[in-house]
Each structure stands twice: as C-alpha cells, then as structure tokens.
Amino acid sequence: MGVDRDTNNWSFDTDIVVVGSGGCGLTAAIAAAQRDVEVLVFEKQSRPWSNTARSGGMIPAAGTRFQHDAGIRETPEAFAADILRKNHHTSDPEMTLHLARTATGMVEWLVDEAGVDLVFIDDFKYPGHSQYRMHAPPSRTGADLVRDLRRAVENHAQAELITDASVTHLVAGANDSVAGVIVRHGTQQERVRARKIILACNGFAGNSDMVAKYCPSMSNALYFGGEGNTGEGILWGQELGGAVAFMDAFQAHASVATPHGILVTYALIMEGGFQVNSAGHRFGDETSGYSEHALAVLTQPGGVAWDIYDESLHQLGLSFDDYRQAIEAGAIKQSQTIEGLARELGLPPDTLSETLKKYHACAADERGDEHGRTDCRRLEPPFYGVKVTGALFHTQGGLKVDFHGRVLREDGNPIPNLYAGGGVAAGISGHGPGGYFSGNGLLTAIGYGVLAGRHAASMIKRGQ
Ligand SMILES: Cc1cc2nc3c(=O)[nH]c(=O)nc-3n(C[C@H](O)[C@H](O)[C@H](O)COP(=O)(O)OP(=O)(O)OC[C@H]3O[C@@H](n4cnc5c(N)ncnc54)[C@H](O)[C@@H]3O)c2cc1C
In the chain, what is the straight-line distance between the N-terminal and C-terminal CA atoms, in Å? Predict the structure, then answer.
C-alpha cells in the first residue's frame, strides 16, 4: 500500500481509473463515460456491499422538479443554510453552496440519464431539515440505488466495472503527478496507466487504527459500514502532499437494532418516538440528531437504549425495507399497554409508564421537556419498542478538493491528475458527530462523483 514511483512498466492503458464502486465511483464513471472517454472502475469487494449499498439511499436536493411537483419551492441557498446551521457554520460555506447547487441537476440527471428510480420523500423529515428534500429509491434502500447505477455503468460501452480488484498503490512520477494504479485481481497484479484517477474508496471508518487516532470516541463502537473502507485513498493523497481537513468528523447513528444489527429508521423518533435506557428513563433530546445522540446511547449502561413508539409510527416504519427486516428478525416488540411493552423489552414497567406520562405531559405543554425536546407528542396504544445501540456509519474528514473534485495540496494547487470524492474527500459536516446533516453522505459522494467524472473527462478531451 502506498505510492509507487515506477512510471515505466505498464500492463495496459486507459483514460480514467475510478477506485471504488459506491455512489461516488459509479456516478463518476457514468458522468465520464457519457463524455466519451474510457473508464475502468476497480472494486475491492466481490459483491456491491459498499456504504452506498447499505445506506437508506436518501439523496437531498432543493429545487428539483420532484420537489416542485410536491408543491415545494426551495432554493439551493436555503438547503445550504440548513447544512451550515447543523454544523454551526464550520464547513466551507462556498463548497457547501456549490454542492447544494450541484444537487439540483444531479438528482434530475440520475433519473433522466442514469436511469435511477427515485421518488420524492415527503412523509418525514430528518433532524435539522426545514423542508422535505430527500429523493430515494422506492424501497428506501441504497442497494436499489447501487443496482440502478451499476446497470447504467454496465450499459455504457465506454465504462467497465471490475470486482475483486483491490487497488494497492497509486503510481506517481515527477511533481507527484499521478500516472496510474497498481491493482491486485485474484492472484494477478497489474499496473494500469491512466490519464486521470478518481479516488472513490470512501473514508477510514473500517480502519480501527485511524478511527482511534482521529475519532477516538468511536473506537469501541459497532461499525455499521462497508468493511472495504479502510482509508487508503486518504493516505495515498497525503503521501503525495495532499491536504486534509475535518479528520475528526464522522456520522454515527443512535438506532441500530441489537443484537440483530439492522438499522431502525430514525423517522420513528423524529415523528414522535423517544428513547429510554435500561432503567426506563429518557436521557437526552433525541431530535438533536441521530449522529450526536449515538454518543448519548453509547454512554448508557451496556451502551444500549430502547426506541419506544406507537402504531402510527410503526406504520411509517413499514415503508422502510430494513424496518421490515427488523420485524422478521424478531427485534420489534409490541403490546397494548406500556407496562406490557416494558415486560416484553425487559424494562422496569413502572418507570417506563412514568416516563411515558412525563412525555405526554410535555406533549400537552403542561411543562417543558426536561431534555429540551420541543415536539413531544402523545403516543397511542398499541405500543412498540426495539433495543438499539449506537454505531459508527462513516467518516467525513479527508482530502481537500476544489469545485471539480481535484485533490489539493496545502498551497491550494491541485495534485496533477488526482480527484477524490465521497468519504475520501473532506466533507461538509464540520467537526465530530454533531455537524452531520442527513444526506451529507450521498450529497458529497454523488456530488463530487459527477463533478470529478465530468471534469476529468473534459480535461482528457482537451488533451490535458
Ligand atoms: C447504514 C447507513 C445508512 C446511510 N444512509 C444514508 C442516506 O440515506 N443518505 C446519505 O446521504 N448518506 C447515508 N449514509 C452515508 C453514505 O452511505 C455514505 O456517505 C456514502 O455512501 C459514501 O459513498 P462513497 O462512494 O464515498 O463510498 P462507498 O459507497 O462506501 O463506496 C466505496 C467503495 O470503495 C471500495 N474500496 C475501498 N478501498 C478500495 C480499494 N483500495 N480498491 C478498490 N475498491 C476499494 C469499497 O469496497 C466500497 O465498495 C449511510 C451510511 C450507512 C452506513
């Protein structure tokens, strides 16, 4: 692993090599191939189990025709303002706005030109979203998003996806100008010369040493993303003098069913459910954000909590594939009474009943919520519950890039021929877990993917 300096011995040539086949890599490949250049996508794993495939497939964008058709008028500026509010204005404001502006055409391009099946989501809002603006596959799974993107790559004569192909080195020559990659495919190792290289191999959440170094609060947490995401893209960029930013930023999640390991949608909490610990007490404002609230869950006894909600929220949950899987796995418990639910979940019935009464009192506005939540609401029987833990989903810090996704040195100049996007690039989520704004993951993956793919192809066309 690292940067190889031998620029003479090549197995074969291509125009663009994309490292990684998640949302960033696949969209970069489609965008570049549409401009009539040859693209090879190398994917370390044998099956498409990237973070994008595991995700909820929720892609945020303002001002799309889909949002318009839902009767919502919103500008990218308003969308960017929400992102900046969530990260307390710590992300680069110009880059944040650039990505928000890119997202509008990007979502329509995904549907119209890449053939991705997306619907507009207007039945719940994630923390900090002042408007409905998510676009997702009807199943609300990233697996379907990846299926459609892979089909678009496979249908394109100029693009090819090769799985079981781990890129082990970048190859760079004079001035650290990147000239190709070394890829291990089965027992073979090949040196592939390329005019541009796009790093789309996500961040370092699957690399325990890097997590311990940069995000120590997540060192012992369950990692819920793809095992392929071991940080080499960032390390290669650094070896070539690339600057990094926001290395302490990550997205965690406060609601992964345990021990089943299935995501339980946070829509249940945002639309009225709450969380308790093993003593039956609430322990914070769950709506502050599922990423930061994960840390609160992890500091409860046993590092676990229970989502408590009702029938209407259960019905909302049923629109998510993973929630239905959680039911099949037996993770979701139900009872006509809160005390009965407590017994099903192994919680103290009297305390849980008292907690519900307090929550209802706050819903009736008899007194403020002791944890500062402002949208408590009455839950009606039957009641539902599920035991959950906090988990690390992905890191958000990485290589600094410009508006085209080109990797930058500390002096602001690009490293020749090198692009990065998604989890390899510095994100727009500020520091720590609290700046993460739902959708930032796929916005920076697909956004930079499209920007980098188009720019790399147009540079090649211009002979640069
Ligand atoms: C459970 C879950 C739910 C989520 N839901 C959402 C959501 O609804 N909306 C949202 O915006 N974000 C969501 N996210 C975050 C989002 O999934 C990620 O931010 C985004 O998918 C990152 O895309 P990527 O292309 O950078 O990386 P990935 O999709 O992880 O793709 C990277 C690929 O690179 C491959 N790779 C790594 N190293 C190499 C190498 N050396 N050689 C070859 N291949 C390599 C990996 O195997 C992997 O397939 C979620 C994350 C998780 C874990």
Answer: 28
